[in-house]
Design brief:
8 strands; disordered N terminus; about 20% helix
């Protein structure tokens, strides 16, 4: 619900400071793996050329004690979190933040495909929070809970109907600095 303030006999709606979190597990299981086109784009062989798995960053993750050999398992995927802010209203200064999830299992040419970007969180304004970690902590907790040293969570491929335990690795956080 919105609070209503009356200024100069005009009504102004001021949103509560809240945010919506849709969940990493839900985005992956219920949207990504349930979407047949997404699964067809997903590289099933991690050694495939022009994917994240042939990059220097992937090589660094392979020697990381927490990720190790799990990074090359077909049941494990590397994801990045993106965070961006935008102004939804034309005549007022009000920022809304969005955190989104993107899978790196795709060939480079499919990285920007709309079916590979899913919203995880919407952070309501009117201003950007001073501490974004309060919001991102929920995302980080899910990555820790379902990471390479865990059992993961069960997913079903819309493409094949196969079920398996999916483990997730956080490959990074994308964002920009605010305009000055």
């Amino acid at each position: 619900m919105n609070r209503v303030h009356q200024l100069n006999k005009s009504m102004t709606y001021v949103p509560y400071k809240s945010f919506w979190f849709f969940g990493v597990e839900q985005a992956i299981r219920d949207y990504m793996f349930a979407y047949n086109d997404w699964y067809q784009y997903r590289a099933t062989e991690h050694a495939r050329q022009n994917t994240f798995y042939t990059s220097r960053i992937a090589d660094r993750l392979r020697v990381h004690p927490a990720c190790g050999a799990r990074i090359d398992s077909k049941d494990t995927s590397v994801y990045v979190i993106g965070v961006d802010w935008f102004q939804p209203f034309k005549y007022t200064n009000h920022s809304v933040g969005v955190a989104f999830l993107k899978c790196l299992d795709f060939e480079d040419r499919f990285q920007g495909v709309g079916t590979n970007v899913f919203p995880l969180m919407i952070i309501q304004g009117p201003k950007e929070p001073k501490n974004i970690w309060v919001h991102l902590r929920r995302i980080a907790d899910e990555f820790a809970r379902f990471g390479p040293s865990s059992e993961g969570f069960e997913v079903t491929s819309a493409h094949s109907g196969d079920k398996f335990q999916h483990r997730i690795i956080l490959g990074g956080i994308l964002g920009d600095t605010p305009a000055w």
